[in-house]
Specification:
alpha/beta, Rossmann fold, Dehydroquinate synthase-like, alpha domain, 2 domains, 6-stranded parallel beta sheet, 3-stranded mixed beta sheet, 10% strand, globular
Length: 400
């Protein structure tokens, strides 16, 4: 009975949130699409953007491609390149201070999910008087932020499509989820040429991160037709292109397909939400500083073992999308669901994702359970089955 009451509450609360209109960014795609940045700035009457990025992308020459384009268009800019994985409120405040000091009137994020999340908070902080550390939870913002362009350099979180930012509260040693329909950018630019130099390990973890987003959105209980289409197509693209992108990073078609998959999965979970995989992966990031994409990739198969029982029909659909089973064959949904779970494990192994969470410590499990439930049950996530502490503890112990 207790689980039934929780399930009704989770679904009702989540469904109300999805009724809030979501901002959908203008999408520009294809090799060389980064060259369209100046024209997008003109659309928004912006004269001096702040580029938010990290030092690695500066050294790799990726940011140089953007600054050259801006310089040729005679558009002045400032750079904040101090973003680190799991960006904190303090880091975002530093970026906001530079934006104000340099007189910037727009924000361009070029990087992965951490860069984009930090940029989201920086551009919103610029139009609010409230201390940036006060932004948390649902519907934090009273107005829109500065004009905002996102250029992802990894195909993973899909943050350029989402109404979510995840920021670390260093004082409480926790990740804070900020959910607001004003967070998506005005423009998202998916240029595969910016991803061809990604190493195989990062390509793999990012790709399975996207798959996690798609699967959790699809298996959750808010069944919207647009979410289903986006999640299914993202799954198809990932199974078809991730092995190629890992084996030969120079394959532009595969890189472009993975960016598309990441974007679709991001849009899917913005309405369909995520679930226990993310709630656990965030704890791994907090405690062990494991990259979010890798934490999701390692964790995913363990919860699929649960979902193949809780929602076999949904996993059977994904098996069809992945191309490993066809609808209408003689197999029942449970058999096709099992085949999908096995295919995800095989894909993980193929692209080099570790099977076990070797960083996980037995003595930390109780605390991880508490914090994971605080996220999953407090947001709330419309998960297909509600776990109790003993069940989640068992899953975590199986990951050791």
């Amino acid at each position: 009975m207790k689980h039934a009451v929780k399930w009704v509450w989770f679904n009702a609360a989540a469904r109300i949130l999805t009724l809030i209109p979501q901002k959908i960014p203008t999408l520009l795609t294809g090799p060389g699409s980064i060259k369209l940045v100046p024209s997008e700035l003109k659309v928004h009457h912006s004269s001096k953007p702040l580029i938010v990025t990290d030092a690695t992308l500066i050294k790799a020459g990726i940011v140089g491609k953007l600054t050259t384009i801006l310089a040729e268009a005679k558009i002045p800019f400032a750079i904040f390149d101090a973003v680190l994985p799991d960006p904190s409120y303090e880091l975002c405040a530093q970026g906001l201070a530079i934006l104000k000091e340099k007189g910037c009137d727009a924000v361009i994020a070029i990087g992965g999910g951490s860069v984009i999340d930090a940029a989201k908070l920086i551009r919103m902080g610029a139009t609010h008087k409230k201390n940036i550390e006060k932004f948390s939870g649902i519907l934090s913002f009273r107005n829109g932020g500065l004009p905002f362009i996102c250029i992802p350099t990894t195909a993973g979180t899909g943050s350029e499509a989402t109404a979510v930012a995840v920021i670390t509260n260093n004082k409480r040693h926790r990740k804070v989820i900020i959910l607001d329909p004003r967070l998506p950018p005005d423009t998202a630019i998916l240029d595969p040429m910016l991803t061809i130099s990604l190493p195989p390990a990062l390509t793999a973890a990012s790709g399975i991160d996207s798959l996690t987003n798609a699967i959790e959105a699809y298996t959750n209980t808010l069944h919207y037709s647009d979410v289903d289409v986006q999640a299914m197509e993202a799954t198809r693209l990932i199974f078809s292109n991730l092995p190629t992108a890992c084996a030969d990073g120079g394959k532009v078609e595969a890189r472009e397909a993975m960016l598309r998959a990441s974007h679709l999965a991001g849009r899917a979970f913005t309405r369909g939400f995520v679930g226990y995989v993310h709630a656990v992966a965030h704890r791994f990031g907090e405690r062990y500083h494991i990259p979010h994409s890798l934490a999701n990739a390692i964790t995913l198969p363990y919860f699929l073992d649960l979902y193949k029982i809780a929602c076999p029909e949904r996993l059977a659909d994904l098996a069809e999308a992945a191309g490993i089973r066809r609808r209408g064959n003689s197999e029942d949904a449970k058999t096709r669901a099992l085949a999908f779970v096995e295919a995800v494990r095989a894909l993980n192994a193929n692209v080099g994702i570790p099977e076990k969470a070797v960083f996980l410590k037995e003595e930390d499990i109780a605390g991880i359970v508490v914090d994971a439930f605080r996220e999953a049950h407090g947001t709330p996530y419309p998960v297909p089955v509600i776990l109790d502490a003993a069940e989640l503890t068992g899953i975590l112990r199986s990951m050791l």
